[in-house]
């Protein structure tokens, strides 16, 4: 009798665990995806997109689009970094990859609204370090493919002012207490920032959280909103805005 009861309890626990895993790896992604789409819809409701620019010319190879000079980038004030204030596009992650950037890195943001912006870090385009966090395997899987980035990959940030292009440099694996990776000069909090850095942070390994994987990029260029998106992501932007 005792063995039978114990066996039934173990089966029940097993079923509960399976349901929990299914909820974590399946339903949270669906639920978060719906909320991210709503956040993007709200963002684009306040943004008037310019017509698609001409196809890019290249100098130095197919993967090296010519860069237009629009002068110093427009930078949102820290007080404007509230709610969903931007969008991230990463062609390496797929032609449909567009995720909202929302202020804060609490569970209310990371579990529902894509990429969270670490409070106090730079705005897109600013000198210093704009640091973003996101889940890998649950709640939208916004950085599930972070490990696939290769040097030279471009990451695009959009705000209501325009588009900011960052070029990926390298990744680093650190322990969770390494908060210096989001300093204005990553890993060197005492240094004076000179570059415009983008830092993406997520859990490591996949399906685990014992470490953090950090991806660093450096800003290459920017385009004001009325100049249209970089041609190489024009279709992604149109799809994200529901205009494709």
TrEMBL record:
Gene3D superfamilies tied to this protein: Sortase (2.40.260.10)
CDD domains in the record = Sortase_E
User: Which Pfam families does the entry mention?
Assistant: Sortase
Name the domain of life.
Bacteria
* Keyword Ubl conjugation recorded: no
Q: Which GO terms describe its molecular function?
A: hydrolase activity
Q: Which residues cross the membrane?
A: 6-26
Task: Indicate the secretion signal residues.
Answer: none
Q: Which UniProt keywords apply?
A: Hydrolase, Membrane, Transmembrane, Transmembrane helix
User: Which residues does the Swiss-Prot or TrEMBL record annotate as the active site?
Assistant: 135, 203
What is the protein's name according to its record?
Class E sortase
Name its species: Arthrobacter cheniae
